[in-house]
Specification:
Blueprint lengths: L1 H23 L1 H12 L7 H4 L5 H14 L6 H14 L3
Helix pairs in contact: 2-5, 4-5
The protein binds heme C (HEC).
The site of heme C has 16 residues, from helix 3 and helix 4.
Length: about 90
C-alpha cells in the first residue's frame, strides 16, 4: 500500500510540475516550437538574423506555412508569430 501511495505521489508531482512549467514558461515553449518548425528547410539563423514588425513576421510565417507547406497548425503559426514579434521585432 505504501508503495502505491508513493507512486501516486510521484505521478502527481510530474503532472503538477508539468502544468507549472507550461504556465511559467510559455516563451520557452514558443521558442522550441519555432526551433522545431522553422529549421526543416533552412537554418533558424535565417530568421533570427532579422528584425521585422509583427505584421511582417505574420506575412513571413504564413508564406512558409501556406506557400511552402511548413507543417504547422494555425495555433502553432500564431504562437511562432507572437514569439518572433516579441523577440525579433523592430
Ligand atoms: C517547407 C520548407 C520551409 C519551412 C518549414 C520554413 N521555411 Fe522559411 N523559407 C523557405 C524557403 C524556400 C525560403 C526562401 C524563399 C523565400 O524567401 O520566400 C525561406 C525563407 C525564409 C526567410 C528569409 C526570407 C524573408 O522573408 O525574410 C525567413 C525569415 C524564413 N524563411 C522564416 C521561416 C520561419 C519563421 C519558419 C517557421 C514558421 C520557416 N521559415 C519555415 C522554406 C521553408
Amino acid at each position: 500500500m505504501k508503495s502505491v501511495a508513493a507512486l501516486l505521489g510521484i505521478g502527481l508531482l510530474v503532472i503538477v510540475g508539468k502544468a507549472a512549467y507550461g504556465a511559467d514558461n510559455p516563451a520557452g515553449e514558443a521558442q522550441s516550437l519555432f526551433e522545431k518548425k522553422c529549421s526543416a528547410c533552412h537554418s533558424t539563423s535565417r530568421t533570427t538574423s532579422q528584425k521585422k514588425t509583427a505584421r511582417e513576421w505574420e506575412r513571413t510565417v504564413l508564406r512558409m506555412k501556406n506557400g511552402y507547406g511548413a507543417p504547422m497548425s494555425d495555433e502553432e503559426a500564431r504562437a511562432v508569430i507572437d514569439y518572433l514579434a516579441k523577440n525579433h521585432g523592430e
